[in-house]
Amino acid sequence: NPTTPGRITDDLTEEDIAEAERLADELIAGADEVQIKREYLVSELCAYLTVKKTMARWDCNGFTMPCPDSCSTRRLDQNSFTPCFIHSLLQREGIPSACEYDTSTALTEQALIGMTGQHPYNGNLFSIFRTDGEWPPAAGLAEKDIPLVIENEEHTLSIHHSVPHNFFVDPKKGDNYCIRTFTMDRQFGPAMRYDFGKLKGDTVTLCRIAPDLNHMFIERATILCNDGYERTSCNGGFVFTVEDRKKFWNAAKRAGNHICAVYGD
């Protein structure tokens, strides 16, 4: 932090910078596809390591930050990073990490980690249906998946956010992934994408503890296809089916957004 000379802060050391460089090469080598420049990936990893150092200093087991508010500042723009990839990296380690200063999501993730041993993912909940034959702008459906969604339209919803990770199915063994970008113009801010489409027919558990701690929403769902796998920005999740979409939606509203997901029943 160059604005606080002489004060003790969790600044990165030369060894930390070298670790960011090493992690960047490791992530690039392991990805099926990389859309982002390496320099922007390194910048993101510096932010990630800063978060890890701060968590260690204050003995924290979870992380969240006010994403939209922070991303509109000059600091994040000048340092060319967004929070999304930090969440993906922490979640794949089994560390609760939530978007948009949502401590309820971090709490829910910790509960799911403790109960299931799985590594959660969280996202916004959307009801997928057409109006006059048109899909809503938020729908990140690939052309090949549209007939499948139409076939199941009465039972479909989706969950997506730019924080998928590749340890969703097996928390001990990573799976394939790609790295896209979050911002559309300068194309900084890496965003991990995981192919949820190959999990078609598999069961996931969706959960959220309400902010007032008086309600908990929990339900099983079946993955249908990807949502936003090919997109940049805040995308990356899956379309799923439930038995009663209206009942599901009304129950989820009592707990609020976001919804957390873990693999399995």
3D structure, described in words:
It is a single chain. This protein has 265 residues and is of the alpha+beta class. The protein has eight helices and ten strands. A six-stranded antiparallel barrel has the order 3-4-9-8-7-10. The chain has a two-stranded parallel ribbon with strand order 1-2. It has a two-stranded antiparallel ribbon with strand order 5-6. A hairpin with an 8-residue loop joins strand 5 and strand 6. The chain is globular and about 60 Å long.
Strand elements, count: 10
Structural class: alpha+beta
Strand order of the largest sheet: 3-4-9-8-7-10
The backbone outline, from C-alpha atoms, is: globular
How is the biggest beta sheet arranged? 6 strands, antiparallel, barrel
Q: What's the mean pLDDT score?
A: 92
**Helical stretch tally:** 8
Note the gap between the termini: 44 Å
- The whole-angstrom Rg is 18 Å
Keywords:
6-stranded antiparallel β-barrel, 265 residues, alpha+beta, 33% helix, two-stranded parallel ribbon, globular, 20% strand
How are the SSEs placed, and which strands pair?
Blueprint: H1 14-30, H2 38-57, E1 63-64, H3 67-71, H4 74-79, H5 84-92, E2 97-98, H6 103-116, E3 121-127, H7 146-151, E4 156-160, E5 178-181, E6 190-193, E7 203-209, E8 216-227, E9 237-241, H8 245-255, E10 259-263
Parallel strand pairs: 1-2
Antiparallel strand pairs: 3-4, 3-10, 4-9, 5-6, 7-8, 7-10, 8-9
